[in-house]
Amino acid sequence: MTDHESFRADTRAWLEANCPAEMREPMRDEGDACWGGRNPSFKSEAQRRWLDLMAERGWTVPDWPKDYGGGGLSAAETKILRQEMARIGARNPLMSFGISMLGPALLKYGNEAQKKRFLTEIARGEIRWCQGYSEPGAGSDLASLQTKCEDKGDHWLVNGQKVWTSYADKADWIFCLVRTDFQAPKHKGISFLLFDMASAGVSTKPILLISGNSPFCETFFDDVQVPKDQVVGEVNKGWDVAKYLLGHEREMISGMGLGGGANVALGEALKEALADDPVLRADVARFDVDAMAFRAMSERFIDELKAGQAHPAQPSMMKYAGTELNKARHELIMAAGGSNALEWASERSRGGKHAREWLRTKANSIEGGTSEIQLGIIAKRILDLPGA
Ligand SMILES: Cc1cc2nc3c(=O)[nH]c(=O)nc-3n(C[C@H](O)[C@H](O)[C@H](O)COP(=O)(O)OP(=O)(O)OC[C@H]3O[C@@H](n4cnc5c(N)ncnc54)[C@H](O)[C@@H]3O)c2cc1C
User: Fold this and answer.
1) What are phi and psi of 191, to 5 degrees?
2) Measured distance CA(143)–CA(187) in Å, rounded
3) Is the pLDDT of residue 263 over 70?
4) Could you confirm whether 77 is annotated as catalytic?
5) Confidence band, pLDDT 50/70/90 cuts, at residue 224
6) Could you tell me the pTM of the whole model?
């Protein structure tokens, strides 16, 4: 056997022996995800055990270095692990903005002390993060942000407001863009700061989505004192860190195009509803072909990314394609369900599952940068179109 074949055989055997049966069932809703954190809540003992077992092997972050709580796996081994997890339908043991967003930025820009402290906590699921980027006057034009961060000698003093901060009311810490120089050109006076959401002067106010959920907040900073060593990278050069992190965020969001890891074609999932409807059947067939193409594109991009050969604007392509695909998926699910799919609160509809998921997808092409912004980046940086 080659090294990779024996790694696959060992991984398969370990997963078979250790992944609890309950953790092989598809997630029913967002509430089935495990987010970890300082005060974690587990839906079941199996969920807790699955996180512990995976974290022990470093497999919550298989390709991070072992020194920071990772599995130390190569890109090829990480891919094999993912394939073997998908084979048995194993759930992701830990949902985490620390893993998908902050971690990669810390690995590139963090100092040794920050990496040792935060990456290890992230890998074990002991800290839950939120992202403080958007402000009421700075969304697509993110570099216009105004949250003020003053150097007070022995600490930073932060004042301002963020908005649309996902899970700010549940997060332990925030990675936050702040303005440290108001005189410099807007991209050059920004710093990337980490701080504890339990700090005096931090408050949050939940905002309701059309889906009926309230996953995000307005976040206010009122004279928040932050230790000096919690800037990542250089002061006033936070825009580089912010952009790098955004690439990883967009890659993560593009994963929605894969339909939450479900390997079942939509045509198969909806086959009863499609039997009498040739028009819908054709639409679903077209969708399934697009989904296969997207899956192939994602695999190629991820391989290129891991090999360090990806174009920096590739995550914009993936984000655009993946989120438009996910919206199309839910439009078709609604069409197949007919008027019953619009039910909002009944037991039969499992509390309006389809309608709420469909409405939630409307945000996919806004969060992490809108589709228009991604198309602008693609036009300029990949297609090199005149005037873009
Ligand atoms: C579900 C959800 C979760 C989110 N979570 C977070 C989070 O955790 N942390 C965080 O910081 N932010 C978060 N956001 C905010 C998100 O990043 C912003 O909503 C997004 O960047 C757009 O900014 P905006 O809402 O201010 O819209 P605007 O920037 O005001 O845009 C309004 C419209 O104008 C269009 N537009 C703007 N500029 C251009 C342009 N140059 N060219 C073409 N069209 C343009 C946009 O495409 C959009 O259609 C979240 C948003 C959503 C919906």
Assistant:
1) -125, 160
2) 6
3) no
4) no
5) very high
6) 0.94
The dihedral formed by the CA atoms of 351, 354, 358 and 363, expressed in degrees to the nearest 10 = 40
- Mapped onto helix, strand or coil, the DSSP state of residue 166 is strand
Residue 207 lies in a domain: yes
Pocket-forming residues, ligand 1, beta carbon under 6 Å? 130-134, 139-140, 164-166, 216, 363, 366-370, 372-373, 376
Do the domain assignments include residue 387? Answer: no
> In this structure, which residue's CA is closest to atom 23 in ligand 1?
139
Closest atom of ligand 1 to 209 CA is 1
Q: Which of 366, 378, 380, 385 to mutate to test the pocket of ligand 1 (most atoms within 8 A of CB)?
A: 366
Per-residue pLDDT for 262 more than 70?
Answer: no
Number of Cβ atoms within 10 Å of the Cβ of 142? 20
pLDDT the model gives residue 261: 58
CATH number at residue 47: 1.10.540
Q: Ligand 1 pocket: which of 208, 221, 356, 367 to mutate (most atoms <8 Å of CB)?
A: 367
Q: What is the count of structural domains for the chain?
A: 3
- Other Cβ atoms closer than 10 A to 134: 19
pLDDT at 77 over 90: yes
One-letter amino acid for residue 349 of the chain: S
